[in-house]
């Protein structure tokens, strides 16, 4: 079984901007999400048999979407989950459209997906009890590709490994 999800994966500039925000937060090492695991989930697939992986990859090859720009300008504390995230006050509808284009064929493969409204977010910390305050400059994340990611358990904890990337169109479709 492989644990998979589709995501937007940050480039080095976005990762550096996230590091500045994360570093300013009064969090323990155990609470912080490791920088190499930062991403924006598009569709969490979960555990699947190896035989299904080529079909999941095929879903992504059919996607034709423009570049997505998201402005992460809010720090959100999700108390029930004990999670601290960056979110967007005005999400780009192209991100939601990409989620829909991925979700429909994944559902047709009998993959159970989250049915809540899509909320692009970047998880910065887990296991927190209250929202810390920090001033930060908004992060403008322009994504020109999306990726299929595998979640792996290791001695260091969970590691996310991009498996394959697909380009988004530089011109509106």
Q: Brief overview, please?
A:
The protein is α+β, with helices and mostly antiparallel strands.
Can you list the strand order of the major beta sheet? 2-1-8-9
User: End-to-end distance, in Å?
Assistant: 36 Å
Percent of sequence in beta strands: 35-45%
* Rounded average pLDDT: 93
Task: Tell the overall outline.
Answer: globular
What can you tell me about this protein's structure?
This protein is α+β, with helices and mostly antiparallel strands and 173 residues long. The chain has a single domain, classed as Cyclic phosphodiesterase (Cyclic Phosphodiesterase, Chain: A, Alpha-Beta Complex), CATH 3.90.1140.10. Helices cover 22% and strands 36% of the residues. The chain has helices spanning 12-24, 53-61, 93-108; strands at residues 2-8, 40-48, 68-72, 74-78, 83-87, 121-126, 139-143, 145-154, 157-167. It starts with a strand and ends in a 6-residue tail after the last strand. The mean pLDDT is 93.
Key structural traits:
173 residues, alpha+beta, 22% helix, 36% strand, globular
């Amino acid at each position: 079984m492989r644990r998979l999800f589709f995501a937007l994966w940050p480039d080095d500039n976005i990762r550096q901007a996230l590091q500045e925000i994360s570093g300013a937060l009064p969090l323990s090492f155990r609470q912080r999400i490791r920088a190499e695991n930062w991403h924006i989930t598009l569709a969490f697939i979960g555990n699947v048999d190896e035989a299904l992986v080529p079909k999941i990859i095929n879903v992504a090859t059919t996607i034709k979407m423009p570049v997505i720009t998201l402005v992460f300008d809010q720090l959100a504390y999700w108390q029930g989950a004990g999670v601290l995230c960056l979110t967007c006050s005005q999400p780009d509808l192209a991100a939601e459209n990409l989620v829909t284009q991925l979700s429909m064929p994944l559902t047709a493969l009998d993959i159970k997906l989250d049915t809540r409204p899509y909320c692009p977010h970047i998880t910065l910390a887990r296991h927190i009890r209250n929202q810390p305050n920090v001033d930060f400059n908004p992060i403008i994340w322009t994504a020109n590709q999306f990726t299929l990611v595998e979640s792996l358990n290791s001695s260091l904890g969970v590691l996310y490994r991009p498996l394959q990337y697909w380009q988004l169109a530089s011109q509106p479709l």
